[in-house]
Amino acid sequence: MINTAKVNITTAFKGMDSSEAIKDYAQKRGEKLAKFLQHLTTLHYVFFVEKTDHVTQVNVTGGDFEAHAESRAANMYAAIDEVTEKLVHQLQKHKEKIKNHTGRPHHNSE
Question: pTM score > 0.70 for this model?
Fold first, then answer.
């Protein structure tokens, strides 16, 4: 487990050897996700190879937010990039939803 100021990152490799380079790359990309959440964030990466696809799965937990994403690509680094972009999109959507709904009445009262 890798701890930084705002994010806890864990990695698991299924059916393949552990790689420090992949762990470091996942940490770097995972820190990009942490900037979207106010509370301590936990990222759990799972890496494995299925036939010819390199698969990356990520579970994100932070405050009131939970998300899961999976990506398949020709290499593990591309899969990490793709899954990160999927999660960035989910986090932006969540952040915008919170921003739009905070302090607003539920019904349009005139």
Answer: yes
